Amino acid sequence: MLFDPRPKDNLKDLFDRESEISLLKNSLDSPLIIIIGLRRTGKTSLIKSVLNYTKSTYIFLDMRRFENKEYIVYKDFIKSLEREINEITRKNKDLLSYLRHIQGVQVMGFSVSFSWGEEKVEISDVFSELNDWASEKGKTMHIVIDEAQELIKLRGYNILPSIAYAYDNLKNLSFIVTGSEVRVRDKFLKLEDENSPLFGRAHVEINLLPFSKETSVRFLEEGFKEQGISFPDSEKIFDILGGNPGWLTYFGYIYIKHGRDEEKAILETKRYAKRLLSREFCNFTKEGGRDKRRYLKVIETCRKGCSWKDIKNSLEALEGREINDGTVSDIINNLLEYSFLVKEDRKYMITDKLLGEIIN
Ligand code: ADP
After folding, report:
1. Per-position pLDDT tens, the chain of length 360
2. Which of 201, 248, 251, 340 has CB 3.0 to 4.6 Å from 269, enough for a Cys bridge?
3. Nearest to residue 45, comparing CAs of 20, 80, 18, 10?
4. 100 vs 75, 113, 135, 179, 233, CA distance in Å?
């Protein structure tokens, strides 16, 4: 069902995205695939649907669980790895005989426990054994790190050397890394930083954009048709909510669930988006000790697109004093880096129409 609000895990429920699906399918033997797309554009749905369709074996590490944390430690990461590995050992008990060789791994019955203390498990050892197991089976094991930009907050441990080691030596492992922000490529994987373990590694990149107006309208019409409903206002809904598949799906779901009341469904969707976006925005300001009022002002100013000078003027009006150019540029760059803003033809725009909702 198109309007199911959970991530899709079956290609038959994934609307459009033909070229992204075929690029991902054809790249599954690449050591590193990066999927970048704004929150709720369907990154998880794309990955799960394709990996299930191709009957691939994968570990799905959902880093969203850390989004409210100020920082993460090794234990947090190793525990999520442990949880996901236990998911696959349930169906693949022979994997246990590989994992039991690793220092810091305890096998109890049909599950494993990873130590994070003195004799801590080395992540590259885990990758090595997963690779040997996959190689023995003649398959590729995919390690998905979803919303990987959260790992920038990992303190006291660097996971990149283990990924670089796997990239260079473990031919039966493939990493699929997703992120809602450009930071995942530049600040987490650091592929262009000469000092980074992953510097210069070739990779496949898939960019998931929001739906265009035409695709959004088709999506809504198709979703309602599936439910035997004729819905004449799809264009209007796009004009209000924009083309983020997550918001459109939620709108359709609420509309059907709550007595086909369009105004109520719009309101509910805005409320839902506001909750998610406000939380992200708060984490963003809290994390960098940033002045929330200033950043909200910039979001407000960029609602319909604006120039650098407009932003400077609005900040000066807010504070009633001159603000130096460097500070204005820093604020804009932070917002660009976290994908709250994009720059198009010398204009700055908010990336998601509903981001404007967080101001009220
Ligand atoms: P992300 O991982 O980018 O945050 P999700 O895969 O969780 O996005 O998708 C967000 C919501 O939008 C979910 O309800 C999902 O079902 C829906 N969705 C996203 N893309 C599509 C699509 N192409 N077809 C159908 N539903 C989609």
Report:
1. 999 999 999 999 999 999 999 999 999 999 999 999 999 999 999 999 999 999 999 999 999 999 989 899 999 999 999 999 999 999 999 999 999 999 999 999 999 999 998 889 999 999 999 999 999 999 999 999 999 999 999 999 999 999 999 999 999 999 999 998 888 988 899 999 999 999 999 999 999 999 999 999 999 999 999 999 999 999 999 999 999 999 999 999 999 999 999 999 999 999 999 999 999 999 899 888 999 999 999 999 999 999 999 999 999 999 999 999 999 999 999 999 999 999 999 999 999 999 999 987
2. 251
3. 10
4. 19, 10, 17, 32, 58
Amino acid at 192: E
Ligand 1 geometric centre to CA of 1 (Å): 12
Instruction: Read off the amino acid at residue 210.
Output: P
Q: Is residue 48 lining ligand 1, measured as CB closer than 6 Å?
A: no
